[in-house]
């Protein structure tokens, strides 16, 4: 059980949206919480649709004293959770990271203690026993789709690959852990849950952005053009939050802000009409192709005019998880001569910082602010990472992974010989 009264505890803070626009799904999440917030609330939708942004906005709206009032909720307040644990799987390579941090939290340990004792593990049975005696707790799991089947290899869409995570979500939805509420972001409803029709399971579909929101987003990127032109661009991008944001950034930087600038999209008719695919799956394929096309054009333009930035982007795509700026700098310094992917690496740390700033400004890389005394971490969105990796041949990927492994081993040995460092 919780042996002390821990403050709201987050491991891997959620990224703050740089261009947030209000969405009806945010209001639905707030309504669920205000009305009692029991059981599971699942925000489901394609990667990059804006699920994490909505959850981050919700957490930010819960003030310390519980009296934060939100205009579009009729000036009602969003109650503060008595206890809160937030975890993002976008920066975690396996579910064990979650259960380890969660175990420390339930024991009443602080974040620093959990980071300094990462070798300790709790069994799933121990976690359940601690949860049985816990006070009211809001658990937020962001990025659960990282461990869900995407339906591309004959598997059931939405199936949670880790049995412990699947069981935990099922127990909360069934009411077996009545003091525990869960907000999760996922690709689709977990197909294993027999309780998806239960009053303790609430689902919010993250739909296409409304046209008004799209237009506001494009204007914030300082794109010129009338409303009809901006709406046409939004529809071309599928009104998908991440695709539209990247497309607007590309047009703003490389096409003079002209919304009529040509973004090359392939014909999507075949992928959206083939009968052997379910309707939702066809839509997902079409949106993935749109996203890849925008990333490809970004990639080609950066390869032409910013070779150091694209080399760094390729390198980060090979890293599965988050990394601090200090660790990235050391890895790049060690790997400059070890792999063909490093040919265009920034020749100095100063130029590396400039290339990294460019990628962050263009929203190709996200920066998570550190928790407690933790340094900030960098992470590539999972869909962006996949889009970059598909451009690399298999030999380059193997070569890059070997270089990273070698460099990480050197970095680990240096860290072991220098007590107190956590880069």
SSE layout:
Blueprint: E1 9-11, H1 24-34, E2 40-44, H2 51-61, E3 69-70, E4 76-77, E5 84-88, H3 95-106, H4 111-116, H5 124-132, E6 137-142, H6 163-174, E7 180-186, E8 201-205, H7 211-220, H8 227-236, H9 241-254, H10 269-273, H11 279-305, H12 307-317, E9 323-324, H13 325-335, H14 349-361, E10 366-368, E11 377-379, H15 382-389, H16 394-416
Parallel strand pairs: 1-5, 2-7, 2-8, 5-6, 6-7
Antiparallel strand pairs: 3-4, 9-11, 10-11
Characterization of the model:
- The protein folds into 3 domains: 9-205, Rossmann fold (3-Layer(aba) Sandwich), CATH 3.40.50; 211-305, no CATH class; 307-416, Winged helix-like DNA-binding domain superfamily/Winged helix DNA-binding domain (Arc Repressor Mutant, subunit A), CATH 1.10.10.
- It contains 16 helices and 11 strands.
- The chain has helices at 24-34, 51-61, 95-106, 111-116, 124-132, 163-174, 211-220, 227-236, 241-254, 269-273, 279-305, 307-317, 325-335, 349-361, 382-389, 394-416; strands at 9-11, 40-44, 69-70, 76-77, 84-88, 137-142, 180-186, 201-205, 323-324, 366-368, 377-379.
- The strands form 3 sheets. It has a 6-stranded parallel sheet with strand order 1-5-6-7-2-8, with helices on both faces. Strands 9-11-10 form a 3-stranded antiparallel sheet. A two-stranded antiparallel ribbon has the order 3-4.
- α12 crosses α14 (349-361).
- The two termini are 31 Å apart.
């Amino acid at each position: 059980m919780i042996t002390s009264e821990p403050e709201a505890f987050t491991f891997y803070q959620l990224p703050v949206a740089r261009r947030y626009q209000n969405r009806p799904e945010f209001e639905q999440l707030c309504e669920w919480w205000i009305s009692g917030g029991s059981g599971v609330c699942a925000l489901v939708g394609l990667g990059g649709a804006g699920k994490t942004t909505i959850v981050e906005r919700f957490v930010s709206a819960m003030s310390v004293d519980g009296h934060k009032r939100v205009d579009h909720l009729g000036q009602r307040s969003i109650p503060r959770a008595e206890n809160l644990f937030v975890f993002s799987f976008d920066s975690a390579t396996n579910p064990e990271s979650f259960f380890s941090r969660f175990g420390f939290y339930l024991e009443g340990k602080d974040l620093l203690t959990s980071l300094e004792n990462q070798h300790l593990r709790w069994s799933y049975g121990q976690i359940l026993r601690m949860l049985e005696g816990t006070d009211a707790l809001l658990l937020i799991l962001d990025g659960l789709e990282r461990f869900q089947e995407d339906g591309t290899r004959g598997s059931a869409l939405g199936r949670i690959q880790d049995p412990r995570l699947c069981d935990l979500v099922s127990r909360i939805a069934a009411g077996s852990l009545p003091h525990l509420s869960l907000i999760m972001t996922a690709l689709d409803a977990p197909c294993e849950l027999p309780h998806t029709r239960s009053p303790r399971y609430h689902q919010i579909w993250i739909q296409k952005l409304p046209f008004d929101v799209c237009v506001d987003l494009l204007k914030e990127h300082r794109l010129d053009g009338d409303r009809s032109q901006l709406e046409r661009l939004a529809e071309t991008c599928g009104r998908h939050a991440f695709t539209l944001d990247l497309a607007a950034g590309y047009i703003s930087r490389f096409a003079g802000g002209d919304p009529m600038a040509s973004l090359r999209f392939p014909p999507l008719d075949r992928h959206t009409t083939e009968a052997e695919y379910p309707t939702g799956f066809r839509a997902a394929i079409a949106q993935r192709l749109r996203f890849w096309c925008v990333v490809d054009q970004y990639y080609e333009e950066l390869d032409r005019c910013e070779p150091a930035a694209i080399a760094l982007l390729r390198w980060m795509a090979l890293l599965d998880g988050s990394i601090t700026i200090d660790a990235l700098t050391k890895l790049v310094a060690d790997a400059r001569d070890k792999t063909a992917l490093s040919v265009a690496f920034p020749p100095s740390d100063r130029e590396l910082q400039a290339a990294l700033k460019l990628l962050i400004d263009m929203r190709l890389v996200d920066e998570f602010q550190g928790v407690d005394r933790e340094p900030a971490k960098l992470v590539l969105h999972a869909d962006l990472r996949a889009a970059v990796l598909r451009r690399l041949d298999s030999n380059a990927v193997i070569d890059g992974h070997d270089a990273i492994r070698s460099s990480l081993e050197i970095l680990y040995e240096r860290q072991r010989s220098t007590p107190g460092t956590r880069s």
